[in-house]
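thought: fold this chain, then report.
action: predict
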Amino acid sequence: MAELEAAGEALTARGRHNGVMAPWASDLARAVAADDPARAAALVGYVRDRAERFGTDTAIGESLRCAAALEEGEQAVELLAKAVAFLESSPCAYEHAVARVEYGIAARSASELTRGLSGR
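observation:
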């Protein structure tokens, strides 16, 4: 966590906020979620804000996937469905497949899980 925090401080001090190129905030949100949910939520807010400003399908999809990791039940399913939709329009096939697998698991959908595992 200290390394992620240091990377975040260094990058933001230089005006570098691209969460796709440097996903420190997403990784840190997941790392602190169990012990500090409020901090994790604040980090997810930062990630989503930066993704919306950056405006690419990849950035937005990855921010939604990060947000879903901190949710449960139907909220997680809805966020993952949105992430899949954005990442499907993205050139990043790996991120799309990961989101589809996570969506398949959360939605308990064998067909979505299979699509994700096959990279379709």
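thought: worth noting. The chain has seven helices and no strands.
final: tokens above.
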